[in-house]
Amino acid sequence: MALERTFAIIKPDAVIAGVSGQILQAIEDSGLQIIGLKRTRLTPAICRGFYHEHVSKGFYPELEAFMIEGPVILMCLSGDDAIKRWRDLMGSTNPSNAAEGSMRKRFGTSIGRNATHGSDSPASAAFEVSYFFNAFELN
């Protein structure tokens, strides 16, 4: 196993529904460490920078509208194989296909409103973590 960092978001639907604490508890129970944590509201400009590879796609306006509709919780997670472990804990993008007990199965309502985000590779994790956290915020 390799010690990794990954990026995670508790999306507006989950924050508004009041299930952030349950998601944070599941992360801690899984053995992943939360080494960076902040609650904020994304702006259209921040979304465009973060989702830069999706801006020209047809679904982007809906994605941006969703991500700015309420507060989010941004996290940097650390642990052995953190990327895979967080993705397994989140479950499939479509909550109806997600494994029982996964965050998306428990708290997601659709492909677009699926409660959580996680990096899908070491390269995306490096970009996403550094987009929202500086080195002094991670410990």
Describe it.
By secondary structure, the protein is α+β, with helices and mostly antiparallel strands. It has helices at 12-17, 20-29, 44-50, 60-67, 82-90, 103-107, 122-132, and strands at 3-10, 33-40, 72-80, 116-118. It has one domain (3-133): 2-Layer Sandwich (Alpha-Beta Plaits), CATH 3.30.70.141. It contains 7 helices and 4 strands; from the N terminus they run E-H-H-E-H-H-E-H-H-E-H.
Q: How much of the sequence is in beta strands?
A: 15-25%
Give the rounded overall mean pLDDT.
Answer: 97
| CATH fold name | Alpha-Beta Plaits
Main sheet?
4 strands, antiparallel
Structural class label = alpha+beta
Strand order of the largest sheet: 2-3-1-4
Shape: globular
Ranges with pLDDT <50 over ≥5 residues? none
CATH superfamily: Nucleoside diphosphate kinase-like domain
Helix content: 40-55%
Number of E-type strands = 4
Give the radius of gyration: 14 Å
Number of domains: 1
Number of helices: 7
CATH level 1 class label: Alpha Beta
Write the SSE topology.
Blueprint: E1 3-10, H1 12-17, H2 20-29, E2 33-40, H3 44-50, H4 60-67, E3 72-80, H5 82-90, H6 103-107, E4 116-118, H7 122-132
Antiparallel strand pairs: 1-3, 1-4, 2-3
Summarize the structure.
The protein has 7 helices and 4 strands; from the N terminus they run βααβααβααβα.
